[in-house]
């Protein structure tokens, strides 16, 4: 993240907000600034596809129409789920197979199992490392100084 981008985020995120990110992954994901800082951390670990997939699934579930939902499902599948996707997520064979078999008629819950797996991966693996990371610690320190 550029220094300028960090400065803009710092103005928006109060110390209390940045501290709340350490309470739970949900608190972190509910914050726009938190998501951006977390994404920056994940990018440094070459695993930002996890957050991007999770966010795409959240958008998908808020889709206003079945037609738009079908298009979004195809994009999510092509970008994250199919084997050799540009941002392929790490999910088990059965989950991937189930999505592939149902992608022609996607429903509201088409990606739920994969999304839960990715959330658990972030919560148990990436998130604890994020809290100890230089990125988060620097963000906290800058927030306190503002």
UniProtKB/TrEMBL annotation:
Chief place of localization: membrane
Keywords: Cell membrane, Cytoplasm, GTPase activation, Membrane
Entry GO CC: cytosol; plasma membrane
Domain RGS: 24-140
PROSITE patterns with a match to the protein in the record: RGS (PS50132)
UniProt entry tagged with the keyword ATP-binding: no
SUPFAM superfamilies given in the database record: Regulator of G-protein signaling, RGS
Membrane topology: Peripheral membrane protein
GO molecular function: GTPase activator activity
Compartments reported by the entry: Cell membrane; Cytoplasm, Cytosol
Keyword Glycosyltransferase (UniProt): no
UniProt superkingdom: Eukaryota
Pfam families for the chain: RGS (PF00615)
Protein name: Regulator of G-protein signaling 1
Natural source organism: Gadus morhua
Gene assigned in the entry: RGS1
